[in-house]
Give the backbone structure.
Amino acid sequence: MAASAAVEDAEPFDDSLADVLAGVQRLIRRRLRAGLDVPPLRGAHSDVLRLLIDRPGIGVSAAAKELYLAGNSVSTLVNELVRDGYVRRETDPGDRRSARLYATPAAAGRLGDWRERRAALVRDQVTRLDPADRAALDAALPALRRLARNLHEEVEGS
C-alpha cells in the first residue's frame, strides 16, 4: 500500500519535471551562447573540462567511467580539447603508457566566465519572480539535489 501511494504521489512528476528541467537548461545555454565571442563548446566538451577542473590529473579511462561515456569517445573529446588549447596531457610517471589530463588556464577561465554569466542570468531571472515563487524554488533545491544524487547513485550501481 505504501509503495502504491508513493507511485501515486509521484505521478504529477512523470514527464513534466524532466521537461521543465531540460527546458530551463536549454534556455540558459541559448541565452549564454548569444553573448559569446568564441564558438560555443559542445556539452560533452564542457563536461570533460568540468571534470578535469574538479579532478586534475585524471586519466582517460577514469574520465570515461565518471562521465558514463566510452573510452574512445572521451579520447576523441580530449584530442579536440588539446588541439583547441583547453587540455594539457602529461605522461603518468607511475605508468609511462598512461596520460594524466589537466585543464589549461584558458579552459578554467572560459568555464569560470560561463559560470559567472550563468549565475548572473539565473539571479536576474529569479529576482523577477514574486516572493512566493522564489521561496518555492529555494525550498525545492534540497529535494532536487537529492534527486540528482539518487540518479547518480543509481547509475553508479549499474
